[in-house]
Prior knowledge:
Blueprint: E1 5-10, E2 18-22, H1 32-42, E3 48-53, H2 56-60, H3 81-95, E4 98-105, E5 113-115, E6 129-132, H4 134-137, H5 142-148, E7 152-160, H6 165-182, E8 197-206, E9 211-213, E10 221-223, E11 228-232, E12 235-238, E13 243-246, E14 257-264
Parallel strand pairs: 2-3, 2-4, 4-7, 5-6, 6-8
Antiparallel strand pairs: 1-3, 5-7, 8-14, 9-11, 10-13, 11-12, 13-14
Helix pairs in contact: 1-6
Amino acid sequence: MIEPRVVTIDSKKPWKHTIIMWWIHGDEKSWFEVIERLIKELIVDTWKVTLIQAHLEAKDKNQRQIEENLNRCFGVPWTSLEHILARHIEICLDQADCLLDIHNTVKNESPRFTVLEEPKLAKLFNVDKATFGLLNMYGNSSCGYMVAQGKEAITLEAGWTETNPVDNMKFAYDAAINFLKYTKNIQQEEVYYEKPEALTFDYLYRNSWVFTVAKAFRDFTELKEGDLIGMDGDMEVRAQNDGYLLFANNYSEPNSECFLFGHKEKAN
Ligand SMILES: [Zn+2]
């Protein structure tokens, strides 16, 4: 097993110990290496930061995972390689105050968005959409694990890398730097962007049989009540309300996370 690569700079300063993590999923693109280099060039001895490359074995094989989704393995008993990795990472998470977990997508035209629970953090990222509810639903994700401890955590979905890799890399790097400003590790004022559209996701569909989507849905496709989302075996699965669809995919294994359904945040 390849252990997570962890770099910690602990100045013991009073500001927030911040983790920036990537490669929870090994098939997300390799420009993270460039970001790590750029961040390392900035490191000074006043930082209180940990950089984590999470799943290097999956990354070396260009696979999302080896046995199961590492981002569902935090705080649960050991049954797989990913659980052992999660135990290593939890030691860091337990010592830190906040986490920025950067992902990207292998899915065409997926937008950039954040997954978080604390509304005040949403404006730190130059994204169109901020999603709420997921970290409470996914308590065994890296950020769910932090939020359950009352800590600040953001999953940044940095978009699809194929269209413009340089632009994407810059976006993820800028996001990390702004977060380091917010946590006072970089002694400059953080930037606040226009408030992204807030969506709350509170419904997760798990299949009983083979689940097949009705079509290839883009993330955040807006649906009306009754619209067909897919087939679970012979059973039609339709939108129960007007709302937004996220992460809809085909799954043959029962009890998979087939899709999420959400709505506009009323408080927005
Ligand atoms: Zn990911």
